[in-house]
Here is the input.
Amino acid sequence: MNLTEYDISHPYHAVVARSERITSEDSAEVRHITLNISSATFNYLEGQSIGVLVPGPHSFGNTHHMRLYSIANARQGEKQNVAEIAICVRRCFYLDEVSGEEYPGVASKFLCDRRAGDEILIVGPYGRQFLAPRDPSCNLLMIGVGTGIAPFRAFLKHIYSERKDWKGKVRLFYGANTGMDQLYLNDKNNDLALYYDEETFEAIHALSPRPHLDEPVDMAAAVRAHAEEVWAMIQCDKTYVYVAGLSRLEGQLDMVLSEIAGSPEAWKERKQALIANRRWATLFYA
Here is the structure.
């Protein structure tokens, strides 16, 4: 769905409760931002998103610029506070293809510059296709890059901290340029370490082979190294696959899963079966 198709006519007022940088000063800036929405009347589930409205004026006469962000906490609220909701925001920059000048991302700059007490407008929640199954015996195969880990943080908090009954296998493949870019898995914020003692959970890290040259994360290598387990999970009728992050991740996965399946045709057939049974969900951004 195009962003212009979302209904933003009934926004909620949210107040920044906390804005915490979760990467080191020598890495790209990523912030975990907690919003207080005590006046809101909506409910949400893990895997859904909210829209942030950046006040204008903007190009083409728009009064607001809207950007979607995945909710990074479970349905009981951030730190079990139902009045709080969290998002993960990377400060982005874009290069003008003609001039070569660098410009800050409209929404990311706006959010990363907010401090506790600042008020913003949000809309939503949106999305129903990226939800965890109800059956606790199902397997979850989660593959994410960068801030694409946000919905998986929410999934893990829900199934292990709130439900506490998950018996299916849970595998998280997570990619970042460097170790300090491993959001929620570094010295700044290590939330996901809480689940390392769970017998059903394992996290597999994928890093850029040459981060100083800004080479993409080698997710294909990480998946290939665990090919036998990944393919066994994908063939199981109780496995749900979730992929989130930069759009180029889709091509990487199709390539390596075609190898593991034996041919592009075999992978295409299996992927279509997953999609048809609503066990394949993606959340990509540019």
